[in-house]
Amino acid sequence: MSMSAARDVSGTRERLVVIGGDAAGMSAASQARRLKSPEELEIVAFERGHFTSFSACGIPYWVGGDVPDRDRLIARTAEEHRARDIDLRMRTEVIRIDVAGGRVRARDIDSGAEYWTSYDKLVIATGARPIRPDMPGADAPGVHGVQTLDDGQALIDTLTRTRGRRAVVVGAGYIGVEMAEALINRGYEVTVVNRGSEPMSTLDADMGRLVHEAMEGLGITMVNDAEVTKILTGDDGRVRAVATQDAEYPADVVVLGIGVRPETTLARQAGLPIGDHDGLLTDLAMRVRGHENIWAGGDCVEVLDLVSGRERHIALGTHANKHGQVIGTNAAGGYATFPGVVGTAVSKVCDLEIARTGLREKDARRAGLQYVTATIESTSRAGYYPDSALMTVKMLAERRTGRLLGVQIVGREGAGKRVDIAAVALTAGMTVEQMVSLDLGYAPPFSPVWDPVLVAARKAAKAVHAGTSQ
C-alpha cells in the first residue's frame, strides 16, 4: 500500500481536505487546527504550486524592487504549516471532486502519480486564474502574466536577461497600473494599452481621466480605446511588438494585466452551484449552497455586495483571509459568518494614490438606484502646512434618502487610505448628512479643518436636498 493510500485508512477522527494552499485555504486550515487537535481532526491540504500562504498583491512591488526578495512575501512556509500538524502536499493538484463519494482525486505534478483522498469536510480555495487573451503570440517568450510567485520570478528573470528597455502592459486595472509602476522603477520605457476609455475601470471615467493624466506625467504612454489583436514575434520566436487594430507598439517584454476570473473548473465539473460571475455560491457561513460539508472562499467565490444587494466577484487577499477564518471556525464545529463587502480597494502608481469603495455610477444605474454625485478638490493637510498634496474626491448618494452609495479618491500622499472612512460609513448604512458630522482626527500635518471626505459629504448632502448632482 502506498504512503498516500495508507493515510486514507478510515479512523475515528474526521478529515478536513483543503484544495488550495494560499490565503483562504491555509487560513481555513490554520483556524481549524487552532480549534481542533490532531486527534480530533486530520487536515490534508493540496497546493499545486511551489509556495504557500504568499502575498500575490505584493508581487508588483517585488518586481519593481520595493520589496527586496521573494521570501518576504511568504507569510508561512509549507514546513511551518506541517509543524502545526497540517498535512500539506505541495506540487499536488486536485483534478476531480467526487461529491457523492466524499473524496478528491489528486495528482503529484512531478511524478504523475494519482490517488484518491476521502474527506468528511471539504474546503475549496482554488483562487482565480489570470485572463489570458486567445490571440496569436500570447504564449510567446517574453509575455508574462503575474499571479503567483513563480510568475513573478519568471518576469524578473526575463527583465534581467532582456537587453531592450521597452515594455508594454496590456490592461489598465489594478494589476496593469501597478505593473506599469514596477517597470518604470526598473528603468523601462512603458506603454499601457487599454481597451477602456480611461484607465482604472473600477472608477468612473471622470476619475479615471485623472489617473490617465497623472500616468502620462510620470512618463508612461497611455493608449486608450485600443483592443490588442495579436502579439508579434521576431525570428527568434520572442515577443517584438503588441498590435492593435490601428497600430503596433514595440516591446521587449509584455505584461498581461487584464484581470482574473474565478478558478471554478473543478467545482463546475462536480456540479456545485456557480453564479453569474463564474464564482462559487455560498451562504453567510461560506458553506457552498446545498452542501452541508463543503465550504469555499477566496478568489473562487462570489460575495454579497452590501450596497447593491447583489452578488459580485472581488479578488482580494483581505477577503480571502477573512473567508478562511470563517470557514476554519465552521469546519471545526464553531460558528462564524462573512456578511459581505462594500467593494473597497486602494492602489498606487508611483506617487499617485487611487482608491474606491461602494458603487460607481454605472453600478448604481444597474441596481436601479437614483443618485446624485458631488466632486471636490482639497488637500491632504492644512493648506499652509508643508508638502500638502492635492486630491479629488467623488461621492455618490441615493437621491431621495441621502444614503452613501460610493466614494472614489485620486490624489497624492495621504489620499488613498481616506477611503476607509467611506468604507466604514457604507458598512454602517450612513447618509451623507450623517457623515458631515463625523468626529475625525484633525491636526494641520494630517488634514485640513474639514477633511476632504467630509467636504465631499457636505456637497453631496446639498445635492440630495436640491435633487441634482453637483
Automatic annotation (TrEMBL):
Cofactor(s) listed in the protein's UniProt record: FAD
Classification via Gene3D superfamilies: FAD/NAD(P)-binding domain (3.50.50.60)
Keyword Oxidoreductase belongs to the record: yes
Coiled coil: none
Keywords: FAD, Flavoprotein, Oxidoreductase, Redox-active center
GO molecular function: oxidoreductase activity
InterPro entries: FAD-bd_OxRdtase, FAD/NAD-bd_sf, FAD/NAD-binding_dom, FAD/NAD-linked_Rdtase_dimer_sf, Pyr_nucl-diS_OxRdtase_dimer
DNA-binding is among the record's keywords: no
Domain FAD/NAD(P)-binding: 15-321
Chain ranges of the Pyridine nucleotide-disulphide oxidoreductase dimerisation domain: 347-449
Family: Belongs to the class-III pyridine nucleotide-disulfide oxidoreductase family.
Protein name from the UniProt record: Flavoprotein oxidoreductase
Organism of provenance: Streptomyces cyaneochromogenes
